[in-house]
Amino acid sequence: MRAAIGVLPLLMLVGCGEVPQPFRHDGPNLALAPTAARAVLVQRIDESPRATALADAVVRRLLEAEIPATTRSGGGGGWTLAPAAEESAGSIRLRWRLLRADGESASDLIQTLPAEAWKAPSPRLIDGLAAELVGKTIPVLSGTPPAAPAPPPPQVPTVRVVPPSDLPGDGNTALGGALRRLLEKSGFKPVEGDAPADFVVRSQATVTPAPGGQETLTMVWIVGGADGAEVGRVSQQGAVPKGRLAGSWGSLAADIAAGGVEGIDELLRAAKRK
């Protein structure tokens, strides 16, 4: 339940100009912040200026989140943030215990930073520590569990395509490149050179004479795992005009790769499920 904050009536003085306000204070009063059932008393680690600055920053962040908070001893409500600092191996561990009114610990939060940085912490560091602490404390104060961390993105299987080496014309380069592009569109990540990969695709190609001024191209795609064991094979065969393969393959490479990638994709996904 949000605490109600009383507001003093404002006296309007007409025709007298601006009223001097020598004791005006902009921003929340960190020592006299309102209290409520869920108000938080933020204790200091020690009496040093850095500890005071950190406690004040935590209170400020809590107030911005509409949670009553104070650094005034005895002015808290249902909660206390009790800090302690431990130094070891060049680092400082700031331990924050969030205590209920009965002294029972509700959560235990640890912040670690270099000891050198804690000697003279910058305002940015102070505010960052406060923001992190309050962000992790709010779910406990509000009684709602913290959001579950987002699941890691699914791992994309990697595939190394060994370029063909026995095709005429520019077939070796054109067909290998077309196959890599289509595998990437299918959700796999091609890797270059001899980089390790989850799967390796090799090929065997033969070109034989065919009747009617044609040639028959036979492609066999061999899919293997990272350990070198063969997963399966995909075969393609088709006739092309004689001499068509001797020059630039152009769209022919894309057509052949599209036919081959259908079977390769099935083999890769089946192997991934095992």
From TrEMBL:
PROSITE patterns recorded: PROKAR_LIPOPROTEIN (PS51257)
Protein name as catalogued: Lipoprotein
Organism of derivation: Magnetospirillum fulvum MGU-K5
Lineage: Bacteria, Pseudomonadati, Pseudomonadota, Alphaproteobacteria, Rhodospirillales
